[in-house]
Specification:
Largest sheet: none
Number of strands: 0
Number of domains: 2
Strand content: under 5%
CATH architecture of the largest domain: Orthogonal Bundle
CATH class of the largest domain: Mainly Alpha
Helix content: over 70%
Length: 282
C-alpha cells in the first residue's frame, strides 16, 4: 500500500512543481512584456485605457523618436565603446596580474594580492568625489577614457578573484615544460595559460559587462558632453526633455535592456558552465 501511495503522490508532486515554475516564469517574464508593450503605446493607453494589454495601435514610431530626437543611436554606440574597452582592459589586466601573483615567485606577491582584494571593500559610491577631483585636475573629463579607466579599475578586484580560482587548477608542470622549450614568462602566459582560461574569460566578461553597461553615477557625474554620454544617462535626459511622451522613453528602455537579454540567450550555457566551474574550482 505504501508503494502505491508513493507512486500516486509523485505525479501530483510533479504537477505542483510545474505549476509553481510556470507561475514563477510568468512573474519574471511579465516585466519584459510590460516594458515592450509600454514602448509601443500612446500616453492614453499608458495612463489608464490599456495599461497591461497589447497596444491598440503599434506605435513603432516611438523607436524612431527615441533614436532621432533622443540621440539613442549615439548613446548606444558610446555604451558599446566604453563597455568593450573596459572589459578588454579589465580582462587582460586581471589575467596578467593573477599570473604574476600565482605563478611567479616573488617577495610581495601575497601583499599585492591582498591590496587588490581591498578593492572589493570599497563601494563605488564612496569614490565619486576623489575620482572626480583626480579626473578634473588631470583635465580628463568628457572623454571615453573618463569612464573606461574607472570601470576597468573597479572591475579588476573581482576579476582577479575569479581568475585566481581558475588559474590555481592549471598544473604548474605546464609552465615548467614551456620554460624547458624556451618560453619566457610572456610566452608561457599567452601560449599556455591564456588558452586554458576561457571559462574565466566568460565569467569576468559577463560581470564586467553588467557593471559597465548599467552604470549611471560615474557616467552622470563625469560626462556632461552630449557626444560622450552613455545609455543610462541618455535615457535620463530623454525623460527630462519629453515628459509628455512616455512611449519613446519606453523604447529607449527597451534599447538599453534587450541587448543584455539577447546576449544571455545566446551565451546562457557558457555563462552557467563558467560559473559552475568557478564554484567547483574555488
Amino acid at each position: 500500500m505504501e508503494s502505491i501511495t508513493q507512486k500516486e503522490s509523485k505525479p501530483a508532486a510533479k504537477v505542483g512543481i510545474y505549476i509553481f515554475l510556470s507561475i514563477w516564469a510568468l512573474i519574471n517574464i511579465f516585466p519584459i512584456y510590460f516594458m515592450f508593450t509600454f514602448s509601443l503605446k500612446s500616453n492614453d493607453e499608458i495612463f489608464g485605457k490599456n495599461i497591461i494589454g497589447l497596444p491598440a495601435k503599434w506605435l513603432w514610431s516611438n523607436y524612431a523618436t527615441a533614436m532621432k530626437t533622443g540621440n539613442m543611436w549615439l548613446y548606444f554606440l558610446n555604451s558599446i565603446i566604453v563597455t568593450v574597452a573596459a572589459i578588454a582592459i579589465s580582462l587582460m589586466a586581471a589575467m596578467m596580474a593573477t599570473y604574476a601573483m600565482t605563478r611567479i615567485k616573488w617577495k610581495f606577491s601575497k601583499i599585492t594580492n591582498a591590496f587588490f582584494m581591498l578593492g572589493l571593500t570599497i563601494p563605488i559610491q564612496a569614490s565619486i568625489v576623489p575620482v572626480y577631483v583626480i579626473l578634473s585636475r588631470a583635465h580628463w573629463l568628457n572623454k571615453y577614457s573618463t569612464l573606461i579607466i574607472p570601470y576597468a579599475a573597479f572591475a579588476l578586484s573581482m576579476a582577479i578573484l575569479i581568475c585566481t580560482g581558475f588559474m590555481a587548477e592549471i598544473p604548474s608542470a605546464l609552465d615548467e615544460a614551456a620554460r624547458i622549450d624556451g618560453c619566457g614568462y610572456f610566452g608561457t602566459f599567452f601560449r599556455i595559460v591564456l588558452p586554458l582560461m576561457k571559462p574565466a574569460v566568460s565569467t569576468v566578461g559577463v560581470y564586467s559587462y553588467l557593471q559597465c553597461w548599467n552604470e549611471f553615477m560615474f557616467a552622470n557625474v563625469f560626462i556632461s558632453d552630449k557626444a560622450h554620454k552613455t545609455l543610462p544617462v541618455g535615457i535620463k535626459a530623454l525623460s527630462g526633455q519629453h515628459t509628455t511622451e512616455w512611449g519613446p522613453i519606453g523604447a529607449a528602455l527597451v534599447i538599453a535592456t534587450f541587448p543584455t537579454l539577447i546576449a544571455y540567450l545566446f551565451l546562457s550555457r557558457k555563462i552557467q558552465a563558467s560559473f559552475i566551474a568557478g564554484a567547483v574550482k574555488g
